[in-house]
Every structure is written in C-alpha cells, then in structure tokens.
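Example record used in the benchmark description.
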Amino acid sequence: MKKHEYKSYDGLGLAELVHKNEVKPNELLEMAISEIETQNPQLNAVIHTMYEQARAASEKATGLFAGVPMLLKDIGQEVKGEPKTLGSRALGKYRAKTDSEYVKRLKKCGFLFLGQTNVPEFGLMAITEPVVYGPARNPWDRSHTPGGSSGGSAAAVASGMVPIAGANDGGGSIRIPAAYCSLFGLKPTRGRTPVGPQFGRFWQGAAVEHVVTRTVRDAAAVLDILKGEEKGAAFSTPMYEGSYLEKLQHPLEKKLRIAFTTKSPIGTEVHPECVEAVKKTLKYLEALGHNIEEVEAPVDGKKIATSYLSLYFGEVSATVSMLDEVLGRKATLNDVEPATWLLALIGKSMSAQEFVLSLREWDIGAYAMENFHETYDFYVTPTTAFPPARIGDHKLKPLESIALQVTGKLGSATLLKKMGIVEQLVQESLKRVPFTQLANLTGQPAMSVPVHLTRDGMPVGVQFMAARGNEELLLQMARLVEESELWVGTESFIKSTTGSF
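Model output (structure tokens):
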C-alpha cells in the first residue's frame, strides 16, 4: 500500500490488508505517525504520543484489528504509566496506575495506541478548548470547534490521522463531535461497554465508552469487542448474542415507525440548517415507505435539563475535591479553570435530597421513553441546535467572571443560588446542544449520522434514538443512510475496501 492511500481506508479496511499480508503493522504505524506529525500542529487533536510503545506492540499484534492505529481519549481510557490529565493542569504530573477495562479489551484485538487526544477540562464542555493544551480545531474549518468533549478524537479521525479514536459520552460527547466533524457517532446503551476499574458507574451511569469512526461497520466491529459483562460494574444490559457487524449485512426487515421533532426541549432556538438536516433525512425515509410522525418526547425537557446539570455540578464538585489527594493540599481556584471552579461551587451547594430527586427524574424519563418506543422504533432530532461554533465563541465567559467574584466569600454557594446561576447555566451551556442529554439520563442508545453540510460548508448531524438494548436497529438504520446519497463523509475518507469482515 502506498503512503498516500492510508487515509482512504477505514479500520477494517486496514485490518484486511494486514490479514492478507499486503501491509505490515509497523508500516501502517509509521504512516499514521506521519499523518499525526504533519497535521497535528494545525489541529491540536493529539496532546500526548506513545509512538515507541506502539512500535513495540506492533511486533506482536494479533486479532481482528491487528496493526490498526488508534488514539485514546484523555478521559476514561487509561494506559498504565501514561499521563492521565483529563485536560487539567492540576493533573499534569499524574500517571495512570492501571489499564482501563476499555483499553484491555481493545488491546486484545490488536489495536496500536499512538497517543491521547485533546479534551476540555474534565470533559465538561461541548467544545474542546482547555487552557492547559489550547483548542482542538475542526478539520473542515480550523477556525471552528470540533465539539466536545471527544473533540480531539473527532478531529483526528476526520483529518485521517487514524480511522478510529476512543470517545465517551456523558451528555453528547460522542454525538456532538461526530456531528461537527461529519463522522459516525454511536452512544451505546448504559452498561453495554466497560467503564472500570476506576469507576463502577461513570457519571452515575450517564456516561458510556465507545469510539468515533468514519464508517458504520467500524463502530459495529468495535462494539462487538467492547460489549459484555464487567465485574464490579453498577449497570449491565441484556447481552446481545449476535454480532453487530454481521447484523449490518441484513437490511431493515419492516416498515418503521419514526417520531421526530426539531423543537428544542428547553425552548431555545434551533438553527434552520439543523432543521433542514432532519427534514431531508425524513423525506428520504418516508419515500422508502417508513411512517413518519411529528411527536415530541413524553418528558419535561426543562426538568431533564435541570436534572442533568444537577449530575454535572455534583460530579465536578466531587472531582475537584479529589484533586486534594493528587496535589497533596487543598485544591484552589488557581488549580482549575474558572468555569470548572464555578461548577464545583454550585455542586457544593446541592443537598443530598436535590441529587436524589434529580436521579428520580432520570428514572421517570426512562420509563416514559420505554413506553414511547412501544409505539415508535426511532425518535429523531437534530444532533445539535447549531452548526459548529467558532473557536472561543462558546465559552461561558460571563459565568467565569462570577466564579472570581464569589470565591472566598462567606456562603458563596448560597450566593450563587440566589443569583440564579443554575437557570443561567441551563440556557447558556445547553442552548447549542439541548438534544443529546435525554439518552444519557434514560440509558438509551443514540447515534449521530452525517447527512448535511451548511451553506458555509460545515457539517451538521441528525440524531436517532432507540429503545434500550436496540443498538443493532440503530446500526442497521445507519448503514441504510450510509449507503444513500444523504451520507456526507469526511474530506479525507474516500471509500473503504470491501471484504469478508
């Protein structure tokens, strides 16, 4: 294989070449390293490299993805002895004590890990602009964000550095970057993929592990590898006995019932281009004979948003408090970004009662959506309410200044409540991305498919949600869309080889 051909293959395509002895793992590795070294100075997608470790691993790589280069996200996908910064300067010297279960499973199938990707501090934003590393940039237009929190991974895959990169999703962090970078992003059902051993529950079960990819088949193949029981995990989902990859060979067998909305669940604006993406997708599906109905989800969108942010505040507060052990002293405002400090202060102001009531709201939503999916196979929305923002435009600047104002003041947490900061955050932090959190709180699988480019040439995605445990149905739908004229692939992706995988 010629060096210039590397980016024209997806992960399974590269693996097929290795299995046929048409290319060696170490050759693929050097091609990927060359792409990273060439493109990363402009995109800032990769913040730590592990080239020598990957070179050593390439000599004994076996399995389905033997020799295929991959990047890991700098949150939840730890490699023993490597940095674990979570995008924060406070953890700059910290090293992972063990491989995560996610990494263990992917190692066994032959992936070569070349490094870690850029993330917002603690994965908290739908953009990737950490102070410590600087912003990751969107390959479609480097003045725009690739989204977050898996923004570095999405930028790396969309630019062709690697065909597959690690990602996780606690409120949209797989689907949002996938939409912004014209990739495929599947958030699996809660409990489908491993989150340990650092966690038994990741963000109280809202967050799950998977990947961002250029092709549907790569995502299906990785899900086959990751699925399965995990000892010590707080959640599990009924085992899918078949192969997700094999299921892609079978077309959807029935006419589907598809509900949709283009209205923001928190009553905020939705950009016309995001609405257009949904409408043209549904027009195509309707022409195939599927039943389309405009119906909003049977949940209170604002209550869901508020309960999501309750989790958000509590998790940030707990994370900041745990920095004390790493730092050997009490964490201060100078150790983290101002917005992070503000979120932690709000978390401190929450009562145990408030947190429990928020979790109950998740369960109410989960039951409502399970009943909803007895009537509808899919629930379709825009993935995001707006196309990708410009770098720097989506920071919570007014709220950062508030953190500086209240820090150190007596009763600062109570003061924040009186100032109505929670209500401001619902509007400010979610107005661009109000659609994705529902699936995290209910535990449902959801995906973003790349189907639209704006008049400015920026990608926009459409989200499909299904009942819990129905990833195979989502993947079949994604394959249908992928084979249609709707699909908008990345600039670097041409067309993967066909094979028997």
